[in-house]
Amino acid sequence: MTTEAYRVARAATWLKAAFTVAVGMNLVESLWRPSGLVWTAARLAAAALFTVALVAYVAPRLLRGCRTRSEHP
């Protein structure tokens, strides 16, 4: 496995974990209405984790596509 493939696989794992956390938090929120500073901080942290994981997963694929196009005119 190349370094790039390893990074994409690791990013995919983080994205799956972040998605699982987000779905779990939404399930908790649908069954019970948590509130307060701690819950808000947890929601913001989960959103940030998901965003970073998504960017880490998508960015290498986009950059690889840009490099491929620039190498082959």
Topology record:
Layout: H1 3-31, H2 37-71
Helix pairs in contact: 1-2
Series of secondary-structure elements, N-terminal to C-terminal: HH
The chain-level mean pLDDT equals 86
Helix coverage percent of residues? over 70%
Number of helices: 2
Main pleated-sheet profile: none
What form results from the Cα inertia axes? elongated
- How many extended strands? 0
Classify the secondary structure makeup into a structural class: mainly alpha
Beta-strand level of the residues, as a percent range? Answer: under 5%
Head-to-tail CA distance between termini: 28 Å
Cα radius of gyration in angstroms: 17 Å
Low-confidence stretches: none
Describe the 3D structure:
The chain is mostly helical. The protein has helices at 3-31, 37-71. α1 (3-31) runs antiparallel to α2 (37-71). The protein is elongated, with a radius of gyration of 17 Å. 5% of the residues are buried. The model has no long low-confidence stretch (mean pLDDT 86).
